[in-house]
Specification:
The chain is α+β, with helices and mostly antiparallel strands. The chain folds into two domains: 119 residues, Metal Binding Protein, Guanine Nucleotide Exchange Factor, Chain A (Beta Complex); 191 residues, Metal Binding Protein, Guanine Nucleotide Exchange Factor, Chain A (Beta Complex), CATH 2.170.150.70. The longest helix has 24 residues. It is globular, with a radius of gyration of 20 Å.
Length: 356
């Protein structure tokens, strides 16, 4: 009997904006015990999947849909732990990238071409794709020279402006993305020269990948992508019944932002993460030590040039943040293929830099 499970990495618009991730992956399962889903919220996206996510932290758990009259279930791979009862011969293979045409620029598929020596197939572009340009409501509310962003259900809607004088005001230690916490002296990590590492040439913001256990269990997926943006450059589209389109633009202020837009969760002491309570999309990460510099989940961005938003973001490719954490809390096959995926991502980023 073939014990190989082929996993696809999906790059479609629905998956990206309903999760906040630049790509997602799911593992097929049998029907779950419904009582196990009591603390989940649900959202049905336009692709027909009903997505279950944790009502407390926003972690995507599973999705389901009808297939040929029968329910089909898939669990988000980031929450899989594994156990000693795993089948010894079970092999999980990341097999293909799907719906890549939605990204416009290839998204993260350009970084992950091989995992554990297995080439990742690129599905041919669907023949039924409508290539007509469709403007999302977020884009119509966004100034011409700004970058629109929103979740799939539209509850979270904001735009980002180019760096300006206020972008220099935050102070921040170096992140694990650029300086490995496990091997860099604290005196260096503290950024004594006050380097504005989040600002890059070409009026761009630093962006990068993270595979820490916390991000994985908050999103439900293997790879989190963050853009580092000063709070002063983030402007929300808040409900305003008296306005022409029912919204008004307000600076991001977590204390005064109208209720019902963001749901917050403290993933560790003095660290807050925000997600959309409507569709479960990961939105922000921020902490008390650098309150004016915000990690923005890249899957929300609606850049004209594509999912990687390279006209706005400069991607750090020398390191995957907390890559050593990919196996933490996992055993057996889950630990093996998680390590294989992260290793593939690291090699892919290096090749992408050389080829670029």
């Amino acid at each position: 009997m073939d014990d190989t499970v082929a996993i696809s990495m999906c790059h479609c618009d629905s998956c990206r904006h309903a999760t906040g991730e630049i790509c997602v992956s799911y593992h097929p399962i049998e029907a779950p015990v419904l009582s196990d889903l009591n603390n989940t919220s649900t959202y049905t996206s336009s692709d027909g999947w009903t997505r279950h996510f944790c009502a407390t932290c926003g972690c995507h758990i599973l999705r389901r849909r009808e297939s040929d009259g029968s329910p089909e279930y898939e669990v988000a791979t980031g929450i899989l732990i594994g156990s000693s009862s795993d089948k010894p011969g079970l092999t999980v293979v990341f097999k293909r990238h799907v719906e890549v045409s939605d990204t416009k620029d290839g998204g993260s598929s350009v970084w992950i071409s091989e995992v554990d020596g297995n080439k990742i197939d690129l599905d041919p572009e669907p023949q039924s794709v409508d290539h007509a340009v469709k403007r999302h409501p977020t884009e119509t509310r966004t100034p011409k020279d700004a970058l629109p962003a929103s979740c799939d259900c539209g509850t979270v809607s904001f735009h980002i402006t180019r760096p300006d004088a206020t972008s220099l005001l935050p102070r921040s230690n170096f992140p694990d993305l650029t300086h490995a916490y496990c091997s860099t002296p604290a005196s260096t990590l503290s950024n004594p020269s006050n380097v504005k590492w989040w600002l890059c040439p070409g009026e761009k913001y630093r962006a990068g990948t993270c595979t820490c256990r916390s991000c994985r269990l908050i999103s439900g997926f293997e790879i989190q992508t963050w853009a580092f943006v000063p709070r002063s450059n983030i402007h929300f589209h808040a409900p305003s019944p008296g306005s022409v389109d029912g919204t008004t633009t307000v600076p991001l202020d977590f204390q005064t932002l109208p209720a019902g837009i963001l749901t917050s969760y403290a993933s560790s002491p003095d660290v807050q993460r925000e997600f959309c309570g409507g569709c479960g999309a990961t939105v922000f990460w921020h902490d008390k030590w650098r309150p004016d510099l915000i990690d923005v989940s890249v899957g929300l961005l609606r850049a004209e040039d594509g999912a990687r938003a390279e006209a706005w973001l400069d991607w750090w490719t020398e390191r995957v943040s907390f890559s050593d954490d990919a196996e933490t809390g996992r055993v057996e096959s889950q630990a093996r293929w998680a390590r294989g995926l992260v290793s593939g991502l690291e090699k892919g980023l290096e090749l992408w830099t050389q080829e670029g």
